[in-house]
């Protein structure tokens, strides 16, 4: 699946991933391939992704919103 992590200033990450773990306002949750469509708010924490090469990467955010639709994840983060 494809993910884009965007801040007001720049695009932090864009690429194929096999897993995305996000800090939801009501708790952490994971998104895997073929996940149901969802829109959720994000709280302070770390976004964890595992990319196509099985490399784990972390991105620190203060807050944000995520949309998942048809194996595309868009994160608008601060």
Q: What is the helix content?
A: under 10%
* Overall geometry: globular
The level-1 CATH class: Mainly Beta
From the helix content, strand content and strand pairing, which structural class follows? mainly beta
CATH superfamily: F0F1 ATP synthase delta/epsilon subunit, N-terminal
**What is the H/E string?**
EEEEEEEE
Poorly predicted spans: none
Give a quick account of the main beta sheet: strands, pairing sense, barrel closure: 8 strands, mixed
- Provide the CATH architecture: Sandwich
Count of distinct structural domains: 1
Mean pLDDT: 97
Q: What is the strand tally?
A: 8
Task: From the alpha carbons, calculate the radius of gyration and give it in angstroms.
Answer: 11 Å
**How much of the residues is beta strand, in percent?**
over 45%
- The CATH topology turns out to be ATP Synthase, domain 1
Can you tell me about this structure?
The chain has strands spanning 2-6, 11-24, 27-32, 38-42, 45-51, 56-61, 64-69, 72-77. The chain has a single domain (2-77), classed as ATP Synthase, domain 1. With 78 residues, it is mainly beta. The protein is globular and about 25 Å long. Strands 1, 2, 3, 4, 5, 6, 7 and 8 form an 8-stranded mixed sheet that branches. The termini are far apart. The protein has no helices and 8 strands. Strand 1 and strand 2 (11-24) form a beta hairpin.
Question: What descriptors fit this protein?
Answer:
78 residues; single chain; mainly beta; 71% strand; ATP Synthase, domain 1; 8-stranded mixed β-sheet
């Amino acid at each position: 699946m494809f993910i884009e992590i965007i801040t007001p200033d720049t695009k932090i990450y864009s690429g194929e991933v096999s897993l995305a773990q996000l800090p939801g306002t009501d708790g952490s949750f994971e998104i895997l391939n073929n996940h149901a469509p969802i829109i959720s708010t994000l709280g302070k924490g770390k976004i964890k992704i595992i990319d196509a090469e099985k490399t784990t990467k972390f991105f620190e955010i203060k807050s944000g919103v995520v949309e998942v639709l048809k194996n595309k994840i868009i994160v608008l983060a601060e």
